[in-house]
Amino acid sequence: ATGVALPALVPDAASAAARQSGPTPEEDVRVLSEAASTLTSLLENWERATVDCTYADVPRELLEAKNKQLLLEKASTFALFDKSTSVVTCKTTNRIVRDYIGVTGKGPLVGIERRMLRRGVADRVDPDDLDNYFAEVESFSRALSRASTLSYAAGTADLDSMNNFEKGQMAGGDDTNLEQARRAIADAKVSLDNVVKMLRVEEIGNS
User: What global pTM score does this model have?
Assistant: First the structure.
């Protein structure tokens, strides 16, 4: 996979503190901008985030009946985990995806729709763009909801999340829950990018 390393997300303690004192519109908009960057990082590093290749299996040919004696000999010398007698295998995982879309209580996407709809935030939008703004918020919310549902199903129903596969040989296609979750996240990012543009984030950065 290409792209930069995925940053670790932490529980949304800052947001919890902000809820106690009440975040300013500028703080909300900065978090929305950070959320857009978070989704960009996830999509650019999708394979790294969703494929876990920390498994090692005995090669199939060693498991065949004709090679049973060879397998026993290797086991007797504790060599089963040598590179010559094991192969790296992988499974897909939904854990990082669910962290990044905010459903585990981590990162800037936690409570993001609430931030978008706060009056002080919406007041930053050009009055002529308000209808478009709320339409993008609705589109974002629907896409993120789909991503949440599909990413959960990816960890319980996708075959590649339960059955090991050789590195680079993932069996799933365009219809897996994980791939559909990726497309939903991409849709959410498009809407979030439009929201951020209408909030004129660059003006905050220059203030």
Answer: 0.76
Predicted confidence at residue 117, as pLDDT, reads: 96
- Residue 148's nearest CA partner among 102, 105, 191 is 102
Q: What are φ and ψ of residue 102, in 5° steps?
A: 90, 5
CB 195 within 8 A of CB 32: yes
Contact between residue 167 and residue 89 where contact means Cβ atoms under 8 Å apart: yes
Task: Tell me the two tokens of residue 79.
Answer: 């060599």
Residues composing the chain: 207
DSSP character string of 136-175: HHHHHHHHHHHHHHHHHHHTTT-HHHHS-EETT-----TT
Question: Is residue 55 classed as helix, strand or coil in its secondary structure?
Answer: strand
Q: Please, are residues 116 and 199 in contact by the beta-carbon 8 Å criterion?
A: no
How much is the pLDDT for 55? 77
Could you tell me the two tokens for 39? 């989704």
What is the 8-class DSSP label of residue 11? B
